[in-house]
Fold this sequence. Notes:
Layout: H1 3-6, E1 11-16, E2 34-35, E3 38-39, H2 40-52, E4 56-60, H3 64-70, E5 77-80, H4 87-100, E6 105-110, H5 118-127, E7 133-139, E8 148-152, E9 155-160, H6 174-178, E10 186-199, H7 200-206, H8 223-230, E11 235-239, H9 252-273, E12 276-278, E13 283-285, E14 290-291, E15 296-298, E16 301-304, E17 308-309, E18 314-315, E19 320-322, E20 325-326, E21 331-332, E22 337-339, E23 342-343, E24 348-349, E25 353-355, E26 360-361, E27 366-378, E28 383-395, E29 400-401, E30 406-408, E31 418-420, E32 425-426, E33 431-433, E34 436-438, E35 443-444, E36 449-450, E37 459-460
Helix pairs in contact: 2-5
Bound molecules: uridine-diphosphate-N-acetylglucosamine and calcium ion.
Amino acid sequence: MSNSSALSSSCCALILAAGKGTRMHSKKPKVLHTILGEPLLGHVAGALRPLFGEAVWAVIGHEADMVRAAFAGRDLRFVEQKEQLGTGHALMVALPELKRAGMKKVLVVNGDTPLITTDALRDFMFYAEGADVSVATLTLENPGAYGRIVRQNGELRAIVEAKDFDVSFNGAATAEIYTVPSTGGRATGEINAGIYMLNLDAVEILVPKLGNENKSGEYYITDLVGMAVAEGMVVRGLSCGSDPNLLGINNPAELAASEELRRRAIVEERLAAGVAMHGPGMVRMGPYVTVEPGAELFGPCELYGHTHIASDVIIESHCVIRDSRVESGTVVHSFSHMDHAEVGPDCLVGPYARLRPGAVMERGAHMGNFVEMKKARLCEGAKANHLTYLGDAEVGARANIGAGTITCNYDGVNKYKTIIGEHAFIGSNTALVAPVTVGAEALVGAGSVITKDVPDGDLAVARGKQMNVHRK
Ligand code: UD1
Ligand code: CA
């Protein structure tokens, strides 16, 4: 298949993602475990997207609703495998759906292989052109629990799952089960990477014949290889060397190893592009994060999702930033957290600032230690430097929010807005009981509980009067 036909409308991708991931020992389905903040399934879908566009299906099953929810609005098509009876069964379940959509060829990828790249997949598809069943293989020093490739005279003959592999048969064990010619068929350290290109017309004949008479009692997609050979179909195994990026993840140790591999690759790429990093070994950046050359990062720090960091931004250590934008000239001091926040140019953030979803800082705004913002805007040059909560609030340009100011936005049922005008001054330890508006240039006395609107330019004091009584 050429690159162009790979993109044709009758070729699609299918991610096998229905398994529980027993070896992760976690309630979360394996494909929702993350590498650099992105679920494994997201990494795989991301590698497939440039080749297949919208024609990416995923077979889900274990905690299917959780997976659907995590990928809402992300353009993945789902097929549900109600019972997880094996990878062959997953294909069986998806096949009618793919046929209905008019597909002729399918690239099947295990959902637990997050480091595969678009380039590697493209090469594999190019190699698979014209074959009925193709498989990508790896050669490992320790083939462990991976499916073993059986070749005869260099030709792919079968895949035998590790559990079913009996070395004493020297690979000929496949003879009865897979009808591989017993002469010379041998398994070595070559393993199945879990990436397949299948011609659906051919596979349609084989799939109904898949059995589960094996040590796991599961239907194996890998049995298709031996069956296709027996039917005289065109079968190919592309050796991809020992590329660790193609390894499947089955347990926490493998997850950690793959994450570190990816982390280092991303960091090295950004360093080469001109991003300065102190302690690059402790900088974690997701695959969709963009950092402009000239930005400066101090590890440890974590940048995830669709975060964008402009040039001449300094991110100090211990910051966690998710799906946020930080514009040029801004300094984010240590221990600050951002989630779906927008920080304009020349701002000061933190240390210990928390920007929750909808937090917006315009040019030159300051947000100091122990200040929390949620659905709140600090307009140009506004300052909230200490110990403050701003929720559902708008703070006008150059306004100053004193230490300990709280917007009381929630009455236990509903949320209300606080609006503070330009150049207003809110004294320390003020409670602003929303809905409430403090006008431009207004001044609120320290310790006030503001429940009524304050007109522009007024002074509002709302606190008990001080009384001094002689002690003796
Ligand atoms: C599989 C291959 C093995 C290969 C290895 C590569 C089979 C039988 N074996 O083994 O040859 O070396 O991958 O990493 O395929 N899944 C479903 N439905 C199911 C069962 C599994 O969708 O009923 C999904 C899982 O979510 C997972 C993928 O299929 O993403 C592979 O399943 P897994 O159980 O991890 O297979 P391995 O034992 O790793
Ligand atoms: Ca696996």
